[in-house]
Specification:
Length: 393
């Protein structure tokens, strides 16, 4: 999932599981080993209910589950002794693996949506499923449920969320998303968890935020205002390099010129990566707020994250679509993620982008996103029989 030149899968499903009450650590460990082994078989086209099917059908099953990817994470709840008696693990909980606040806004500038369910997004275990087709990830999720049911495994499905990536690389705002992500050479240092606690060394931390986007408000903005909020040209994805003023003194975005047809990969990467800027309007845009270490991207204070967003559409309510982004990011610690969303000048004082106070004669930055569900998960490194099996010994 983190390798250079691989794109996030087109279809995504998060399956959240809780251990059944009164379960012992050993039983959860066996259940997870079963689940992971079943998913491995499934990826190879071996479906439990279809053992012994004719060879041609076996090939069809292989095709159906081809490209299935799974990632296992453990949430704050797993370590909660008020929830689990006996305790499920004696391993140390990572310092910033916490529940998202529910009675106040989880982050200063992102309120909870009224339609969000209580504790949505928190669980003992998160299983992220990825694949190129909806049928792959949806059937894999139901195969997990079947296994739990057939073997009376001490796990319950607490919730599930789904999302998709667009073929054109854009999101609901119609801007490109994922234009610039961490360069392959810096990815490991931004992703790999340190040795405290020991069981997480070489793993990573996942943040999951299901964010509703107010598309009506967004579509009322003209193209220039949208570009100033994002920090990129809407059509080409080029980073803004500055701002001009029109005859009425309104800001007009200026984007970097696109590299020529014969431009090298390095020139293209430079074009995608926004330049350092001192222009306060460009500085206030989403991409500059979300990444402020353009001079030395590997620096410890860079608060870099590796993003993988998956859009969703959850039907229509009161005549408007309920839609948004499953924001999924991986980082070496969750403290840096919290900083990005709490620090003023980053995303702590503005809901998405734009200046935190209305410029003279201008409008304040619009509120565009609300939180529907979310949780933090520790993703241990690969291990046998499953990542994080040490937690239960
Ligand atoms: C629904 C909510 C959001 C939408 C629609 C959204 C959309 C975008 C878009 C269109 C870009 C520019 C394309 C690109 O550079 O890849 C971008 C970049 C980025 N966003 Fe968001 N975003 C959202 C929420 C967030 C949140 C909550 C965070 C941080 C926790 C975040 C962090 C970033 C980062 C780090 C970048 C890359 C900046 C760079 O290095 O150039 N975004 N986002």
């Amino acid at each position: 999932m983190f390798e250079p030149r691989t794109r996030p899968p087109a279809c995504w499903r998060l399956l959240l599981l809780n251990a059944a009450p009164d379960t012992r650590a050993r039983e959860v460990s066996h259940a997870l080993a079963d689940l992971v082994s079943m998913l491995r078989d499934l990826g190879a086209g071996r479906v439990r209910d279809l053992a012994g099917q004719p060879a041609g059908d076996e090939e069809a099953s292989r095709e159906q589950f081809c490209g299935l990817r799974a990632l296992l994470g453990f949430g704050r709840r797993m370590f909660d002794r008020d929830v689990h008696q006996p305790a499920l693990t004696r391993a140390q909980r990572p310092e910033f693996l916490v529940y998202l606040p529910r009675h106040t806004a989880a982050f200063p500038a992102i309120p909870w949506a009224e339609i969000g369910a209580p504790n949505a997004g928190e669980a003992d275990i998160a299983l992220q499923l990825g694949g190129e087709r909806e049928a792959t990830v949806n059937c894999a999720a139901v195969e997990c449920w079947k296994l739990i049911d057939d073997k009376s495994l001490p796990l319950t499905v607490a919730d599930t969320f789904s999302g998709f990536g667009r073929g054109d690389g854009r999101g609901w705002l119609e801007f490109h998303d994922g234009v610039s992500n961490i360069a392959a050479s810096q990815r490991l240092s931004a992703l790999a968890a340190g040795p405290h606690p020991g069981w997480m060394g070489g793993g990573t931390y996942m943040a999951f935020l299901r964010l509703a986007v107010d598309l009506r408000t967004w579509r009322r903005l003209n193209r220039s205002d949208q570009e100033l909020l994002v920090g990129r040209d809407k059509l080409s994805g080029a980073a803004l390099v500055g701002v001009d003023r029109d005859a009425r003194g309104r800001a007009v975005p200026v984007a970097a010129a696109a590299p020529g047809v014969g431009a090298s990969a390095e020139e293209r990467a430079l074009w995608r990566d926004p330049p350092e800027t001192t222009d306060p309007v460009v500085e206030a845009s989403h991409i500059h707020r979300a990444n402020q270490n353009r001079a030395s991207p590997g620096a410890a204070g860079g608060l870099r994250m590796f993003r993988q967003g998956y859009d969703f559409l959850d039907g229509f309510r009161d005549g408007s679509p309920v839609l948004g982004l499953n924001f999924v990011s991986f980082q070496r610690d969750l403290r840096s993620f919290q900083h990005v969303l709490h620090l003023p000048g980053w995303l702590g004082d503005v809901n998405f982008g734009g200046p935190s106070t209305a410029p003279s004669g201008g409008h304040p930055a619009p509120a565009l996103i609300e939180l529907l569900a979310g949780g933090f998960y520790a993703v241990p490194p690969r291990a046998t029989p499953f990542p994080g099996s040490k937690l239960f010994t």
